[in-house]
Structure formats: structure tokens, C-alpha cells
Amino acid sequence: MFISMLLIFICIFQVKIGSCNELNNTIVNNTKKDEYNFWQPTVGTTWNWILNNYGEIIESDSNVDVLDIDLFDNDESTIASLKENGHHIICYFSVGTYEDWRPDAEEYLKVPDLVKEPMEDWEDEYYVDITNPLLKPIISARFDLAKKKGCDAVECDNMDIYTVDSIKKWKVPITVSDQLSYDLWLTTEAHSRGLSIALKNDVENLVTMVNFFDFAINEECYNYNECKQYKDTFIKNNKAVFAAAYGDYCDYEFIKKLKKQTTGLELSMIIKNEDMELAKEYVKFDPENYNYDMLCNNENNIEYNDNISASVKNKPKILLLYIIIFAFILI
Length: 331
Hints:
Elements: H1 2-13, H2 17-30, E1 47-50, E2 66-70, H3 76-84, E3 88-94, E4 97-99, H4 105-109, E5 115-118, E6 125-128, H5 135-149, E7 153-157, H6 165-168, H7 176-191, E8 196-200, H8 206-209, E9 215-219, H9 231-235, E10 241-246, H10 252-262, E11 268-272, E12 283-285, H11 292-298, H12 306-313, H13 315-330
Parallel strand pairs: 1-2, 2-3, 3-7, 7-8, 8-9, 9-10, 10-11
Antiparallel strand pairs: 4-6, 5-6, 11-12
Helix pairs in contact: 1-2, 2-7
């Protein structure tokens, strides 16, 4: 009740009557959440994030419970196979941008003034006006596709565009209440299809949204001193926080910072390559048990996904073989 009243207060404060009515309706719909059955990942659930597999079929990985994969790049048979091997599947798609390579891209262009300026770091991706009601049928179709393909949950990206500086300069900017209303609508779309849904980043609204979202996904909270904010929100409610760090697992200063920011928080943290391509390679990061010397000198204290464990862990053996061959040649 408190959170509902808080949302209503925010809405009124923003003086957005249309948005306010929609927000209130969404809050009412979310009270029916218990009527739906969907997967709820708990604290400590392990994961990997594979949004770029370079056209290859994603393989099962016995080291993790969850695989977060692209909705459009993976077919029903791939998802079914991964689920048969014990994985829960999170399907990724964007809800705040237009991506010109997606199969439904033309649907965005049919709506006047829906597609806005390009994102700063992604030239082929453009922000969209989330207050345009004609966006919702497009996004609803994506939820339908996630359900059809057998996804257990969805990762809706770009659900905090109200914070973007260029959007704040629009003639009619996206407000906090606009964003909350839209994001709560997303939860209703997910839950009504039996899908759980992640709160992606948007740390500023963790307290407000924790009761409506089923788990969280965060990138680089360690860089902004934000990781600890999950402890009294999602972690306290036994909702998994899937966190990703970008960097070199043997970069001492990087690891030192990561440990400082995440110790005691029970985040499901993985280290991904610093190029941010989100390929299949990853390293599980447990701040309480991460032995830098053992890891980086001996490759003994690390858990990789099955696809790369052999090539990495066998480095010392391969090096020894080269030394023996070289010594034999000299003799």
C-alpha cells in the first residue's frame, strides 16, 4: 500500500494527469500478480549473459542455473534444448529504443514521431517516445514472442531513459512518472503471460519498484557505488540480483574495487570481457572466495563456462609441452 501511495504521489507531483490515470490503473492491475504463476529466481541463483554468440547455437552450461539470451537470435528449439538441460531462460529485448536490424523494425517506423535521436554509444539504435500509446502493441508482440518461444523471464532493456540528458531536452521530456507508468505496464504484460521480469539498472527506483519486479539485472554498479542499494531492496526480499562487471579478471585494481563494492551483498556477479560484446565467456565472481594469486598464477580457482574451460585451464600443460619440445630440439 505504501509503495502504491508513493507512486501516486510521484505522479501527482509531476502534474501529468494522463500518465497519472494510467499509472493508477497499472498499480491496480499489479495487485492481481498472485493470480499468475511464473518463475521467481532467488538470491544466489547463478547465471551467464550471452547476447552475442556470433551466429552459433548457445550450448548448455552445467556451471550456471540461468542463461540470459537474445529473444530474436535464438529459436524455440534452442530454448527448449537449454531448458531440457535444466536451465531457466531469460530473453532479452529493448523496450526503450528502436533497433534497425530487428525483424519488427518496420513497425516502429509506421508510427509518426515515435523514433527519436540515436543513442550516444550505439549508432544503429534510437530512443523512442515511451509515452506514445502506439508503442505498446509493438512491445506486446515481443512479449507474445517470448511466451511462444518458451522463455521463463524477460530482460527489458533501456527502461530508464528518463535519465538520458538528450531526452531531458525534448520539447516534452520523459518524466519519472512516465517511466514508472511504462515500466509497471511492462510488469503486467510479463506476468499476464506467466513470465517473470527484471528491473534493469534504474537504481534510483529500486525502493519504488522492488515489489513489482521479480529480480534485478545490473551493469557496473561497482563503478557508481550503487551495488549496496540492492541489499535492502531485492536481496532483502530474496530476489536474485544478476550483476555484470566488465574487465580483466586478473587486473588487480579492478578486482580490488570489485571486492570492495560487492562483499557481503550476495549478488550473482559475473565478469564479462571489457569489450562489452557479451559473448559466452565469463568468470563467476565471489568476493568472499576470490583468491587473486591462486586464480591468476595457477588457473585453479576459477569457474568458467564449459565452452572455454578446457582452453584456459590447460594453458600450463600446453606451455610445459612447448618447453619440452624446445629443449628436445636444442639437444
